[in-house]
Input
Amino acid sequence: MRIAIGEVMHETNTFSSVKTTLELFKFWQWQKGEEILTTHRGVRDFLGGMIDRAEALGIEVVPTFAAGAEPSAEIDRDAYEAIKSELAAGIKAAGPLDAFCLSLHGAGVVEGIDDLEGDLLQYVRSLIGYELPLIVTLDLHGNLTEKMATEANVLLGVHLYPHTDAYERGEEAVDIARRMVQDGLRPAMHLTKLPLMITTSTTNLSPAKDINALCWEWEKHPGVIDCAFFHAFPYTDIPEVGVSVVAVTNGDKALAKQVADDVANQIWARREEFKPLAISPAEGIRQALAAEGQPIVINETSDNPGGGTPGDGTYLLRAMLEANVQNACFGFICDPEVAQIAHDAGVGATISVKLGGKVDRLHGEPIELIAYVKALTDGRFTISSPVAKGMQVNLGKSARLQVGGIDILVCSVSIQVFDEQIYLLHGIDVTTCKIVALKSSQHFRAAFEPISKQIITVDSPGLTTLQFSFFDYKRLTRPIYPLDEASFR
Output
């Protein structure tokens, strides 16, 4: 048995000012053939799960093409056409296939194309036909469409946020492909959408935790293969934005609809519980200083590069400096200019810089600092978090700057913080700090919850703020909750 694998991954924040170009994809991920196997084998991501499971079952894995970029604005049309061309070449070179497992995100937007995934799946079908099983893994922040559901045999979403189960969904995709080829499984799928947007909601807490429990209860039914709650991605302005549920059964379309509708009804009934309790950076710092024990983690959710922000926001750092906090670290601000200045000056130097706030003015103004250069690194490390464990990271020239009682990490490439590795790289043991500040919405929790005394989420203006009223939406399908809350009373 031969299964092809591939990936096209992008979460598009249409409010971002950073266009997603071909160069960005080639910087982050642009892999062909065997390179895909070498890079992802044993890594806890979608492709890693597909590869490991197939090889464990004695199934031949045929890598086609894998592309991905960190979240940012709309994808350049030329970049998308290049991706399609490379994927087509990989499929054509693959030879005879029994199934295709494809890793996508679910919230991709291209210039002139609102539904990247639906469009790409239709294109893939034009190459492989409709007889070949096509199983797709998705991020739970996908804005799902009927086109996606029509073109794929199965849509599998991660259940957990942080996404510690992406590897398992990759394994599941291979298992379903095998069953379709060898056991005659013919999945039936139903998509139920809701006029609802929710903010980032960790799944180890209610209400998201309870919705997942309902999904898993349905999966105990002998006819149900999978049931997934898609939180959707609210930081994009397209008509298809919205929470959804996908249910997959063993050939029973009526059951699939019953399952998806039941879970969707429960989500809708509890919609008010998804409203966030947002506090300011200053209030978050007050709470952290009053808390017992250490470390107290403060996450700046409004400047989460994992949702398309620049990662150079200054609101939280400025508040920490103004509060004159001691025994604290901040990881990290993306500012290649300051990182270069620190490298040019060398360890032990004192530098005067304007830090952060350079990509736009949404995330705060630059901070004028006089800082001591404590350490310099190349920004390279391996993720140890259950989210993407084993993945190699290169943040470019990086520095540890000391200002008063705060160690500030500055890097040249923007990603969210997944674990403590970026701190360790610069000689900081986070468990010895009273306050550990970072930029992320939820993924950091997988590594930091076991080692922190408390986690405090702070919000401010930014491209991933918890306040949807911050955005000038023009294309959403209205009414939608909570923006049009009065319409649903």
